[in-house]
Amino acid sequence: MTITSATCATSTSISAPVTLRDHRIPADGLYEGPRELRRVPEGWADRPYELFEVVPQGRTIGAEIRGLDLSEPQSSAVREEINRALLEWKVLFFRGQHLSSDAQRVFARNWGELETNPLLASGDSPDVVRFDRTAVPTFENVWHTDVTFRERPALGAVLQLREVPPVGGDTMWADMAAAYDNLPQEVKERIDGARAVHDFLPGFARFLSAAQLAVFQDLFPPVEHPVVRRHPETGRRMLFVNASFTTRIVGFEQAESDRLLRLLFQQAHVPEFQVRFHWQAGDIAFWDNRATQHYAVNDYSPHRRVAERVAISGDRPY
């Protein structure tokens, strides 16, 4: 067989080494999505639900619960299954419940005593927080975990939309167990066992005056929590810092603390760790505040959005 020069040229070009010019990505300029997505702790038994339907809304976080009327008393068996769904999916959605404030409180009390928050406007009782965009000039669009500035941050919260805008007004939640799972190993080694300071001032200074804030400084002094907490029911490790209330990592130089916290705060922004819920009036969201962050999307001005929330007292993170 005769080999032509054209064939030789082609063969040579394919086998020739390829040289890339020098290149670089600026520090922190590229973030790769997750390599692992795990909904439940290792060894967790994935059992079917018998008393209602569970419809997943995301890969690791968020499920709609169908077939329950939350205005009716819940049997112990139903409460147990709801709690299992909460631990597995971290935020649960119940469509069209239209609960009275009292019924909303009764449902939430299945998980413990309710807490009050004097920093926010209340509804018809001190343990109901009312978010009314025509009355309370708050900023909702920041990733956060509720009240981590308390020694015992809330276990969870039950939120109901009373009035929804014609467009917009969604809420997003992020799975902070998946966020921890996907940290680089060297970062995990740096933060496991570390503690961070949480303070109400950064979160509320955005919309309260210095005089208003000063009233609460004795009531809410800065507290320390683990950077990585263990879930008290599942034992799973979860990232427990947030941009609203975490100010520094104890024992780190300020610059290094700021750099590391910036990296950790970014984990809530990863789409693969999130679920986004589009509200209709009367819908309920029940989330595990120990395992999530959330973000209320402020994209509905000049329309009105009215919500009421009750929060369940929690434990001391460890």
Commentary on this structure:
There is one protein chain. The protein has 318 residues and is of the alpha+beta class. The chain has a single domain (53-312), classed as Double-stranded beta-helix, CATH 3.60.130. It is 22% helix and 22% strand. The protein is built from eight helices and 16 strands. The chain has helices spanning 5-15, 76-89, 101-108, 176-181, 185-191, 200-204, 210-214, 254-266; strands spanning 53-56, 63-66, 91-94, 114-115, 129-132, 156-163, 171-175, 195-198, 223-226, 228-230, 237-239, 246-249, 274-277, 284-288, 292-296, 306-312. Strands 1, 2, 3, 4, 5, 6, 14 and 16 form an eight-stranded mixed sheet that branches. Strand 2, helix 2 and strand 3 form a beta-alpha-beta unit. The radius of gyration is 24 Å and the shape is globular. The termini are far apart. Mean pLDDT is 90; it is low at 1-13.
Write the layout of secondary structure elements.
Elements: H1 5-15, E1 53-56, E2 63-66, H2 76-89, E3 91-94, H3 101-108, E4 114-115, E5 129-132, E6 156-163, E7 171-175, H4 176-181, H5 185-191, E8 195-198, H6 200-204, H7 210-214, E9 223-226, E10 228-230, E11 237-239, E12 246-249, H8 254-266, E13 274-277, E14 284-288, E15 292-296, E16 306-312
Parallel strand pairs: 2-3
Antiparallel strand pairs: 1-2, 3-14, 4-16, 5-16, 6-14, 6-16, 7-13, 7-15, 8-9, 8-12, 10-11
